[in-house]
Amino acid sequence: MSKVFDLDMIKAVYDRIPKRIAAARKVVNKPLTLSEKILYSHLWDGEAKEAFTRGKSYVDFDPDRVAMQDATAQMALLQFMQAGKDKTAVPTTVHCDHLIQARIGADKDLQEAFNKSSEVFNFLESVSNKYGIGFWKPGAGIIHQVVLENYAFPGGMMIGTDSHTVNAGGLGMVAIGVGGADAVDVMAGMPWELKFPKLIGVKLTGKLNGWTASKDVILKVAGILTVKGGTGCIVEYFGEGAKSLSCTGKGTICNMGAEIGATTSTFGYDESMERYLRATDRNEVADLANGIKEHLTGDAEVYANPEKYFDQVIEIDLSTLEPHLNGPFSPDIATPISKLGVEAKKNGWPLEVEWGLIGSCTNSSYEDLTRAESIARQAVNKKLKTKAEFGINPGSEQVRYTTERDGVLQAFKDLEARIFTNACGPCIGQWARAGAEEQKKNTIVHSFNRNFAKRADGNPNTHAFVGSPELVAAMAIAGRLDFNPLTDSLENEDGEMVKLDPPSGIELPKLGFAVEDNGYQAPAKDGSSVEVVVKSDSERLQLLTPFDPWDGKNITGAKLLIKAFGKCTTDHISMAGPWLRYRGHLDNISNNCLIGAVNAFNKETNKVKNQITGEYGEVPATARAYKAAGIPSVVVGDHNYGEGSSREHAAMEPRHLGVRAVIVKSFARIHETNLKKQGMLGLTFANENDYDKIQEDDVFNFLDLDQFAEDKPLHIEVVHKDGSKDTIKLNHTYNTAQIEWFKAGSALNLIKEMNKG
C-alpha cells in the first residue's frame, strides 16, 4: 500500500486538470498563467463557462484540502462542531505547533507544553478522531514544513487557517491562508469564495551565488512591493532563475509572500520539485505530475511576454542580488547587507546583536540548516565563538532526526546553541526570553517572516531583523549589526583575524530522509462513538454561542471604541504569546481585544475614553461596559488594517464585545473576510481624509444600512460632542451572499440553517 496521503484525491485532481484547462482556454481565449490554470481547474461548478475579471469577480472554488494549526484549529473546530456534519468533506489535518514555548530546550519545553496545554491537545485529538481529521502531535513539526513534506502537490489548491499556508506554493500549489470560518465552509462541503486575484509576475534570471539565498529574493520583493503591495494578488515566479532554486527555497519565497499581503505565491512544476517529491517518498505523485507537466506551469507565451499577461511584472537578477536584512518592526524595510551598518548608525538601531534565531516555517528545511551549519562549522574550525546567544527550531521531526543523524545539529551544539522543539516558538511569540520584561532597547536577528514590535519576545523595544539562516548564523557569531560577512574579518581566540567563507548547503540528504516517529495519528474509521468533552468551567475551551442576527434596522447611537493610529495588525488586535492559551475560549481571549492598538487621541495603547463615565480605561473593559449598557460600538482604523496573521479571533473578539462596524482606510484581505464571516461590517472611507474627522466622543448613526446592497455605498452620520455633525460616505466589498451572512449574524449561522433543511 502506498505511504502517500490522499493519493486517490490527487489522481482525481490530475485526471480532470487537462479537460478543465482546455475549457478555460476556450472562455479566456489567450495563453494561461499557472495561477489561472490552477484557479480555473478548481471551480466549484466544474468546467469554466465564463472568463472572470481579476480583482472584481467573486468566484466559488473547490479546494482539495484544509490544514489547521493548533492555535487557530480550536476556534475553527468549535465552529465546525456546530455545522451539523459527521465528517469533513475534504482531507483535513491539524498540526500542534503553536502552543509550545521555547525556553530551555526541546525535551523540557515539549513536556512543559503537555503539562500546560494537555486539555487543548486532547480536545483537538478527539475532535480530529471524531470527524476524520489527520492529527499531528506536539513535536511533530511546524504545520507548513509538515504540509510541504507530506501533503502539498503541484497544481493543487488548499486552504489553511494560518497566513503562511502560502508556503506550499513552493511545491506548485495555490495555497491560501484563511480564517477558521472559511475552513469550516470547505470542511462542511460548501464552496469557498474568493475574489479572483490579480496577478504579479516575478521573472528571476541568473543564479544565486555566494552569501545570497532564496530568502533574499522575497526580502527584495518585500522592499519593492511593501507590506500591502501584494494585496488581492497572486505572485507567480518564473524564469531560468526560478528553475535553479530548490523546492524548499521556493517554499521560503512563497511563505513570506504573506508579508506583502499577497493572496498566495507559486512556482511552476520543475525538476527541483520532482527531486523533493521523490526524496520525501512520493514517487507516485512525481510520476503523476510528470504525466501532465505542461499543465503544471504557465504557458511558454506567458513567460516570454509577461507584460501582456500579468498586471505587474518585476524582474530580479539572482546573480547580482545582495543578501538583505529587513527590519526593524516591519518586514518590508529592506536593507542590503553592505548598507546595513550605515543605516543602523543613522537610525540609532542598537548595534550589538543579542540573539540569532534560526527556524520557523519560513526557513527550517534540511537545506536551510546545512547552509547555516556550514557557517557554524567554520566558526568552530576557525576558533570563533558566538557573541550572541543562538537558537535553532528544526521544521519537523523528519528534518530534526535526519539532521541529527547527519551531524548537522552537532555543529550548532558545538557553538552552544539551544536546540528548541520542532515548533514555531519565538517566531510567534512563544519564547520565554530572559530579561524581556525589562523592555530594554536591543537587537536580534532571525530567519523568521515577521518582525512587528513585541512579536518575538513581548518587548516593544526589541529591534528584530529578518534574514537567511546563514546570514543569521554569521551575525550571531559576529554579534554586531554592522558586520558584513562578505567583506569583514573577525578576531578569533588566538588573536588572528579570520574571514568566514561563503556558505555551502545540501539540497536534500544524501542518505535520504529518516524518522522513527513522525508524530502522525490517523483518525478513527468511524468516529460516531468518539465523545468530545468541553468542561463548562474550563479556562481554555468554551463552546460557542451563535451571534445574534441583524434586526434589519439602521444601527444608531454607536459609540467610538477606539480610533487606531498607524499600523494595526492582527497582533495588535489579538496578541499571541501568552494569550495563545485562550484561543479556544472566546470570552477569555476577548480580554486582549485591541490592547496593542495605538489610540489616535493620546498615542497610548489600551487606554481609551469610556463615553458613559468620561473616564479612561482598557479597551476590552470599555467595550464590555458599552455592551452591558446595550450600546453598540465602532472601531476606526488606518491603512492595511488587520495585516499579518490569519487569526479570526481579531474579528470574533470585537464581535463578541459588541462592536458592530470596523471603518478604516483600507483592509488586509484575510481580516476583511473574517469580519464579514462573523457578521460584522467591514467598511472603508470613500474619502480617506474623513478619518481625520473622527473625534474622541463621537456617536455614529447609520443612515441607509436598511438598504444594504451590493455595489452601493453606505452613509453614516457622525455626531460630535459639540452637537455638530458630519455625514460620511463608506464603501464596502460585500456581495449579495456576504450580505446574507451579515443578516444572519454570521456565515456559520447561515450554514446551520441550510444543514437543518
TrEMBL record:
Limits of the Aconitase A/isopropylmalate dehydratase small subunit swivel domain: 560-688
Named cofactor requirement(s): [4Fe-4S] cluster
Domain Aconitase/3-isopropylmalate dehydratase large subunit alpha/beta/alpha: 37-479
Keywords: Iron, Iron-sulfur, Lyase, Metal-binding, Transit peptide, Tricarboxylic acid cycle
Identification of the protein by name: Aconitate hydratase A
Family (UniProt): Belongs to the aconitase/IPM isomerase family.
Gene Ontology biological process terms from the UniProt entry: tricarboxylic acid cycle
Record lineage: Bacteria, Pseudomonadati, Bacteroidota, Flavobacteriia, Flavobacteriales
Species this protein is from: Luteibaculum oceani
EC number: 4.2.1.3
Biological pathway: Carbohydrate metabolism; tricarboxylic acid cycle; isocitrate from oxaloacetate: step 2/2
InterPro entries: Acnase/IPM_dHydase_lsu_aba_1/3 (IPR015931), Acoase/IPM_deHydtase_lsu_aba (IPR001030), Aconitase/3IPM_dehydase_swvl (IPR015928), Aconitase/IPM_isomerase (IPR050926), Aconitase_4Fe-4S_BS (IPR018136), Aconitase_4Fe-4S_dom (IPR036008), Aconitase_dom2 (IPR015932), Aconitase_mito-like (IPR006248)
Record's catalysed reaction(s): citrate = D-threo-isocitrate
